[in-house]
Amino acid sequence: xxxxxxxxxxxxxxxxxxxxxxxxxxxxxxxxxxxxxxxxxxxxxxxxxxxxxxxxxxxxxxxxxxxxxxxxxxxxxxxxxxxxxxxxxxxxxxxxxxxxxxxxxxxxxxxxxxxxxxxxxxxxxxxxxxxxxxxxxxxxxxxxxxxxxxxxxxxxxxxxxxxxxxxxxxxxxxxxxxxxxxxxxxxxxxxxxxxxxxxxxxxxxxxxxxxxxxxxxxxxxxxxxxxxxxxxxxxxxxxxxxxxxxxxxxxxxxxxxxxxxxxxxxxxxxxxxxxxxxxxxxxxxxxxxxxxxxxxxxxxxxxxxxxxxxxxxxxxxxxxxxxxxxxxxxxxxxxxxxxxxxxxxxxxxxxxxxxxxxxxxxxxxxxxxxxxxxxxxxxxxxxxxxxxxxxx
Length: 392
Hints:
The protein is of the alpha+beta class. It has helices spanning about 15-30, 35-40, 45-55, 75-85, 90-110, 110-125, 240-275, 290-315, 320-345, 360-365, 375-390, and strands spanning about 130, 145-150, 155-165, 170-180, 190-195, 200-205, 215-230, 280, 280-285.
């Protein structure tokens, strides 16, 4: 089993990163921006953009080059996510869950699993996500009830997962189950599987959401779903909890980067609007009340970006970074909510019109405080980690 700390530290030439980010900018301007409002309002899955994301290599962004991926460091990946989210947050979600699934295989999988699955993940031939959450088990993953029972050379899986990103359009998932429901402590009885859509695996309801439109969030149902033992990630039972939570470091960096994108996007829209909207004979950006809001928005967005960079650099160095990732996720997601809220206030009555983009940022931002662990739990984790590392 290969841990993140044992893997090669990834870097990128600054000129190469700048060229890649410029390519993403052009793609957003030419392909994303013209369709985002209609797709969001009508909840249309962005099939054409997904195909373009394949061509850009985004489904292999953090997968090693030896498996056909781009092999990007987390710092560059976070910058890409922030750029995309600053215009359309949902698009970044399509690759996030997929890459956490891939990271689980790349970090913990057997050589055979890596060789078989990672090239297909990197190309986007197989796309999917992370199947952790259940109706009665969200942040408390140890409370899951989905079981996998060994039957000869196979495992038979029964249970239900909920709120799974890419659930409808994805074709494979990293699936967390109980292989020993009686184990104590509970985490020792959990295992992680590579679970493609086969007989016994069905999609239940697709959730109709306030925001985060276009990406499908759905219920997954496993009814005597049978997969070979070779699909057990790492080949050893009982390692699933640590494999799943290890991948959440990258997931929290992604959510934090999305928070940065939302905070910066709301700031961009508000800055432009404040310079064109006039009251009392002058642009509203010249009114002190609006200047105070913009000043706070700039500061929040910048602080969030620096915290994400801090967490991503620690990840790239191969260090344990749950504290940094938790801090970044907590602050950046709250910055997104606050900047979206202030953006609504700056836009005034027009913020309630779907002709203006700021309302999308307002609807999307709140999810960042819930996804990848609620911010209430994040604060507890941050506190516990801090005290543990600073004994009296």
